Amino acid sequence: ELGTSSDQLDIQVITEGSSGLFGIGRKPAIIRVRKKETVSEEKEIEELVEAVKIESIKEEKKPAEKKPIEKKPASKPVQPKETKEVKEAKEKQSKPVKEKKEKPAKEKQAPKEKQVKEKLVKVSKPIEIITDPEEIKAIEERAVAFLRDVFGSMNLGEVEITSKYNTSDGCLEVDFEGEDMGILIGKRGQTLDSLQYLTSLVVNKGRENYIRVKLDTEDYRRRRKETLENLARGIAYKVKKTRKPVVLEPMNPYERRIIHSALQGNKFVETVSEGEEP
User: Fold this and answer.
1) Where are the beta strands (DSSP E) in the chain?
2) Gap between the Cα atoms of 278 and 101, Å rounded
3) Is residue 227 part of a domain?
4) Mean pLDDT for the chain?
5) What pLDDT, in 10s, does the model give residues 199-219?
6) Is residue 136 domain-resident?
7) Cα(270)–Cα(278) distance, integer angstroms
8) Which of 48, 53, 47, 62 has the alpha carbon at shortest distance from 154?
9) What is the mean pLDDT of residues 114-141?
């Protein structure tokens, strides 16, 4: 009667029924059924765009941190810097080697501000390889138009957007250039990942098959990959030398894949993720 499937319903039992004795005194169960409230894709995009805008404004207006100058009493001798560094190194070496799944820090924010969280598109549809030039052009135009609207609402000024669809792997690559692109990258690429997720929602809306979307600016993806690979090699050398495990900072699945890939051929160390394996 409600015109929907059972998984889209909220069912609440008001009174539990009773079978009675030999059918005598039987009481029917009373339940309350209503449709679940669903968040539309348009609403989700709107909320995420607002979150990206708020995060970029906070990054832009964030003042430089100033360390307070403290006067040390003359009676206490100044400890050499080397001692502190050695101590910190020893403390780090005592930690076990596991890679933790990234968890956003809990911060108190104003009610209207929504924290930008990493969102990964769950690919339940097969990846589609498009060969029709007109269809490729339409997909690129849809992605570019969406990003122009977002950048315009963020008052970023002139941003040059270029797009390219690779028929080899079915990935739409979008790159943009302009001033203050660091705002669009965000801390460890979190803002860029959020924009990539939003663009993927727009591009794949109403499609039967899935199109991968990759956003980049200022060659950030390549630079971040090189940084992580160098980190992996350095940590592997340290583990081999000290024979002690090391814990890396929390990473998203994409970055954990880079670490695993960089060390998969190293016979002296092994990598283990805490959480879902990439």
Assistant:
1) 9-15, 30-35, 99-101, 159-166, 171-178, 212-216, 248-251, 273-274
2) 10
3) yes
4) 74
5) 999 999 988 888 999 999 999
6) no
7) 15
8) 53
9) 70
CB-CB neighbours of 273 under 10 Å: 18
Angle of CA points 236, 96, 243, to nearest 5°: 45
As given in the structure block, the two tokens for residue 240 are 């081999």
Q: Is the pTM of this model over 0.70?
A: no
Q: Flag whether 24 is in a domain.
A: no
Give the integer Cα–Cα distance in Å for 128 and 211: 6
| Structural domain count, the chain | 1
Among residues 241, 182, 188, 248, the alpha carbon closest in space to that of 217 is found at: 182
Instruction: Go through the chain and tell me how many residues it has.
Output: 278
What is the 3-class SS of 43-82, one letter each residue? HHHHHHHHHHHHHHHHHHHCCCCCCCCCCCCCCCCCCCHH
Q: Is residue 34 predicted with pLDDT exceeding 80? A: no
Query: Does residue 245 lie in a domain region?
Result: yes
Q: CA-to-CA distance for 46 and 153, rounded, in angstroms?
A: 12
Mean pLDDT of 49-77: 55
Q: Which amino acid is at 130?
A: I
pLDDT at residue 278, rounded to an integer: 44
Structural domain including 265 reads 93-102+223-274
